[in-house]
């Protein structure tokens, strides 16, 4: 049976990276992209990330793996840490694409996406929320995604970079 779903993934790049890193392993982004396609019928996978000029090789690799990169200009905070807040960009893209996908997958643990997740859920457009780690996932997300939330800490065997 051929799956005819047309699902889109919206990935909070920094949140995903730091969440998986906090679990003590590295995500294999090629395996993750394949997993999204095979398990959740993801046709388009947006990866939202702050742009840093020196990271061009990483960006090229992610694009080769099938991610659509959406960049946010970065600025250093008062401690010199680079910050590229992508939240509004991700929400806007989900809403621009609303009629183009069957269901959306939101990959983040960030409670700032609570209203988006609630709206998608209420309109039967949420496939699921993928959160890197149950302990760092916002309680608001857990509440709004209800049964449509999965935690990636149990996916290490499938998705770890070797």
Task: Characterize the structure shown.
Helix 5 links the parallel strand 6 and strand 7. Helix 5 packs parallel to helix 6. This protein has a single domain, classed as 3-Layer(aba) Sandwich (Rossmann fold). The N and C termini lie far apart (32 Å). Strands 3-2-1-6-7-8 form a six-stranded parallel sheet, with helices on both faces. The chain has 162 residues and is of the alpha/beta class. The model has no long low-confidence stretch (mean pLDDT 93). Helix content is 38%, strand content 25%.
* Number of extended strands: 8
Low-confidence stretches: none
What percent strand? 15-25%
CATH architecture: 3-Layer(aba) Sandwich
Q: What structural class is derived from the secondary structure elements?
A: alpha/beta
Q: Strand order within the widest sheet?
A: 3-2-1-6-7-8
Radius of gyration: 15 Å
Overview in brief:
With 162 residues, the chain is an alpha/beta fold. The chain is 38% helix and 25% strand.
Considering the chains and any ligands shown, give keywords for the structure.
162 residues, alpha/beta, Rossmann fold, two-stranded antiparallel sheet, 7 helices
Topology:
Layout: E1 7-12, H1 13-22, H2 29-40, E2 42-51, H3 56-64, E3 67-73, E4 75-76, E5 82-83, H4 87-96, E6 104-107, H5 114-122, E7 126-131, H6 139-145, E8 149-151, H7 156-159
Parallel strand pairs: 1-2, 1-6, 2-3, 6-7, 7-8
Antiparallel strand pairs: 4-5
Helix pairs in contact: 5-6
